[in-house]
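Data deposition worksheet. Section B asks for the primary sequence of the deposited chain exactly as it was used as input, without tags or linkers unless they were present during the calculation. Section C holds the resulting structure in token form. Section D is free text for depositor observations; keep each observation to a single sentence. Incomplete worksheets are returned to the depositor.
Section A, Depositor: J.P.
Section B:
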Amino acid sequence: MLDTPTVSAASAEESAPARPEASAEPTAARRADFRLYWSVAGLVILLGAALRVRQWMFGRGMWGDELFIAHNIHDRNFELLLRPLTYSQSAPIGWLWLERIALLAFGAGEQALRLVPLLYGLALLPLVAYFGWRLMSKPAAWATITLVAVAPQLIAYSNQVKQYSSEAFWVTLIVCIAVLLAQRDRLSWRAGIVFWVAAGVGVTMSALAIPVAGALAVLLVLQRLAERGRTRQERLRNLGRFMAAIPVWLVLLVTMGLPMYRASQADPLLRAFWERAHVYPERPLTDLPATWAWFTDKVTGLGTDPLEMWSLTLFLLILLLGAVLCWRRIGGLSVAMLLLPIAVGLGGGAVSAYPLTGRLAVYAVPTLIILAGFAASSPSAASASSAASPPLATRSVLGWVRCAVALVGIAVLMGPQLRTDVDGLRHPASAYMMGSGGNLSEYREALRYVADHKQPGEAFLVTRESSNAQSYYGPTADGIIYPAEAGACPGVNAATQLAGRTRLWLYETTDYTDEENKVLNERLGKGATISEHLFRGARVLLIELPTGSTAGTDVCIL
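Section C:
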């Protein structure tokens, strides 16, 4: 990834010291260490890949938010995707372009549109494994990659037409590059190019990559300015090499990153939605008790979604231990960098600039898991000792005990997640439910039922909420309906579509709200015989209209 090869920290701490008469022994030990590490990591990566590919192959129907994005990708060319999206949606431009390429290459089906999220979800696994090889001990790295492999939300969003797996990958990649750079004595031209190119591409693929990359760069600059043992000229020359490629990031930021962010902030419906969801502080930040209550509530919520840790207390204890051991192993700056993504999100939420909640926090899950994984670091035989330190053998035993306890804690946290994953393998149709279960809706099956049973000449109407799915999956409807207010319609009413017809098919979604549906069913079903067919998140009604029916005069067509 970077220009100068670095021996794995795991190898350095766990391989035996070289003997003068056997200079080839360290190389052989490193190779054996490499094979052992990647054999185990490879098996874990295969497990994570299998969990993700299983969901992708099942091809569950798209739900509401996926369909809104799919409409934009389907209906727009590359140029039009540069403009604010319809249906109050927001997504990075580069990610939208990749989705458009997938659609043109493979069609508009679920698997085609979920291919890009799947590939990002798969790519995250070796990325975390590589970071673990470079800077963590083997037990810590293996625990980390396992937690990432089985994390339910990372699996779920690898199989949705949403950008969250891309967010997780790019934020993690940029943070990992920065942490590796922080370990170097000097920053080369090539290292700067790697960082700024990754940050620039990340801007087009992830909204959170913008502030995260900027903050990481500031930390790296401050680190180099504070270096001791170098002249001011040497420090400036070092920074110059690092900053030489920043124009790449600035160009992509101005042309593709900021326009996307401004569009999402300017959307009044999106803004109102998040305000109704109470994701931002409702009191001024100077109201310290209210701000603290907001912060603790936010952290507690993130423990459930997206981290899905059944015990937030246990996870925070492991995270704290991981931060301490990470500090001792690779420095406090690395701890700050791994905590930076979640800190940026919390800061954005505090100033009402970013709604850090649920799926919008998925980007920070891998870096939090990496930091927690350091809790399982094995004891280092090369650690410095002093006269006040316990003997080396004692420290080694205590270190392995601490490592074992951390591994047990991680396994305990992982248990419910593995149970969720096993259920996902066995029952992919109902796997990884989010919130009230809207993501499990099967609008597609309900619409297929209409297409298979509706006869020529029979009416087919859909509600406003359900038109999203019907317009994507079909079949063609005779109109989108809503209840008339005060008994009158501003335009055409549904009676004009029902005149002379005896059968009406009505398609409704039920996963968000059912109140309007009930009103429509009552008005259209007066004196009629109704057959109801239920699906997950949707309902199909077959209404047998009596002869001379005047149903629909109080129902409007949009």
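Section D:
DSSP finds 23 helices and six strands in the chain.
The longest strand covers residues 503-509.
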